[in-house]
Each structure stands twice: as C-alpha cells, then as structure tokens.
Amino acid sequence: MRSLRQLRAAGIRPTGMTPARLPCRLDRIMAPIPCPRSYPRAKWCKRAAAGERAFTLIELLAVVAMIGVLAALAVVGYRRYLYSSKSAEAKAIIGHIHTAEASYRAETLGYLSCSSSLTAWYPAAPNGKKRHWVQAHADASCWRMLNVATDSPTSFGFAVVAGAPGGPIPTPSTDTKPVWPAPTTEPWYVIQAAGNADADTKLSLFLSSSFAPSEIYVENESE
Questions:
Q1: Cα–Cα dist 17/212, whole Å
Q2: Is 92 in contact with 128 (CB distance < 8 Å)?
Q3: Of the candidates 13, 65, 84, 90, which lies 20 to 30 Å from 159 by C-alpha distance?
C-alpha cells in the first residue's frame, strides 16, 4: 500500500481517508482523476468507470416500456379529444334546433315538423364528408322556416319530427329506446342526429326531444 505522500505525487487526492483505507475506487475519490498507470489495479478502475457510466439492458427495456405506455395513453387521449370535438358539433346544432322550435311555438303554439321520419337526414345522409347546411333538399324550405343555420359545414345529418298532443311519437334508431309519455298532453318534437366518421354501416346517434330539452342521448359516439 502506498503512502499518502506517494499518492499525492501520483495525482490522487484522497478525502477523509487514511492511507491504510484508500483503495482505488472511483466512488471514494471526489475529484474525477483517473487511476495512474503505475497503480497495480489501474485497469480494474478504468473498467469500473466505464461500467458506472453505462446503462444495463434491464434499464433500457424499462425505459422503452415506459415510453410505449405513455405513447399508448397519448393516442387514446387524442382519439377521445377527436370524438368529443365531433360530438360537440352535433350537440351544438341540436341546441340550435331546440331554440328554433321554442321560438316557433311562441308564435304558433305548436312545433314545426321538418322531416318525414327520424331518418330523413338534412342536409344529407351522413357519410363522413362535410356538407354545407343549405342544400337542394326536399326539406330545405322547412328548415329555413325553422331558422336553423350553422357557421360551418357539418358531417352530421339531422331530423326533427313534431306532432300535436296525443299524436304518435316516432321510434328512434337507437338500440336503447326511450320511454315517451303516453298519451301526450302537449305538442312535442323529437330530434335525431347521425354521424358516420369512418363511412361504414354503423352510425353514431344523438337523440333529444321536447320532453327533456336539456338531455341528449348519445350512442356509438366513436363511429
């Protein structure tokens, strides 16, 4: 074992240790000074230094796994954002229809029925493409009378069927059928909207009515 003077001459600065307890260990040397060549264990010290600066395979696999989990969560969150933004468009137009029907009843004491059925979509049947609200459609004049308009093209189709007290209420296209009041004692209307973002045979459906204007039932939102 070298003396303290010899270690200082070799450029090694021990901290808080006596010469008798001074091995060639990087974790016990404060200054980043490499082991001298003349020291018997210099090669071992270099190998230890290289090992302490590297990552093990397990650590790398753990990092890759964490990145994969974070990426999956980001994709799911982004898809939810897209679905919610598209649903917000349909819900906003349904809200405009509610407001227009309320204004129409204030003037005429009844609601305006602009669709022959709950699948007579306006401005067109949903197919994933956006269309302007004003279209050459058989029900276009009735929708203009109802005074419903949008600020931008929409990819959804809408239908509104209204009736007098006691009249039959149409059955919506949703899998879960609502329980309508029977018999009705007031004028009523039912709104149904549909979207088809992936252009397949399954539609996303939105249902609301004069029986609960503040409620919108949503089915297959991701379609």
A1: 82
A2: no
A3: 84
- Is the full-model pTM beyond 0.90? no
Helix (H, G, I), strand (E, B), or coil: what is residue 162? strand
Joined tokens for residue 87: 């649903």
With 0-12 CB in 10 A as exposed, 13-18 as middle and 19+ as buried, what is 34?
A: middle
- The pLDDT, as a whole number, for residue 11 is 65
The amino acid sitting at 64 is V
List of E strands, the chain? 157-163, 188-195, 204-209, 212-219
The token duo for 21 is 């307890």
pLDDT of residue 26: 44
Residue 135 DSSP code: -
Mean pLDDT of 81-105: 88
Residue 215's pLDDT is 93
Write down the domain spans for the chain. Answer: 4-53, 87-219
Task: Give pLDDT, residue 52.
Answer: 55
DSSP string for 163-192:
E-TTPPPPPPSSSSPP---SS--S-EEEEE
